[in-house]
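Q: Here's a chain of 300 amino acids. Please give me its 3D structure as tokens.
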Amino acid sequence: MNTMNQGWSTLVDVPQLAAALNEERLRLVDARATASTALRVVDTRFSLADVQSGAAQYAAGHIPGAVYADLNRDLSNLDRRGHGRHPLPDSEAFAATLGRWNVTPDTQVVVYDAADGSMAAARLWWLLRLIGHRKVAVLDGGLAAWQAAGHALQTDVVNVPAAAPYPGQFDLTQVVSADEVQSRLLQAPGWLLDARAAERYRGEVEPLDRVAGHVPGAVNRPLGMNLRDGRFRPSEELRAELQPLLGAYMPDQAVVMCGSGVTACHLLLGFEHAGLHGVKVFADSWSGWSSDTQRPVATG
């Protein structure tokens, strides 16, 4: 039985991935296999404190068959100025990166990081959706859950035959600009949700950006509230908590943000897992917003 027949589009658990990898191993020795059964696993481990550590951890051991994605190099364009610490990559460059990983429209992609998906599995999940790829899911619990289940790691660097650049472009209607956020500041709360830790949202500490605080009117929803023991809580539980935060707004009127547009994607994944579809991302997030001294800042 092909475990990927229906396509995974939000979360996948360790037993599902292990079974799919076994199917993929068998597929590679079956001349009758079709491209539609292809699976690509991507390791996105990254640390803001040590930007080289993710690649080093990948080299030390990763899920068999996984390629590595670097947040700064592959999932951002650090040459773009005024768009925060992790500006979006160019659509064409990201399409080429997907081709380098041999990701085609038929490929089922599974992304993971060290644990909960916030650094930076959910970011890659969102970028794939942004370019039009729907068969992508985050491994719930990440590498920690894989190892806790007793599964082996691979140390060899995985080289895959390159494909053509992915045939898609970013749907920028799903990306909210700072100007759009500015234009909505007088609207009732519920449309903008901030995934940062509460103390950063309140402005009590700011370890990364030039100004402490939050966008006026933003509602704080720390991403950790969506988790239990490092994994996403059941969809029904999340929906019961997330839907009231929106107030009178429909999900497709809502926007999520964080420090630099990375962990906001984790909150977006929580909304999708809860069945609340269509939330957009303020990609510049707080680092982009606070880089302009003319923009208002709230604390408390």
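Q: Can you summarize the key feature?
A: The mean pLDDT is 95.
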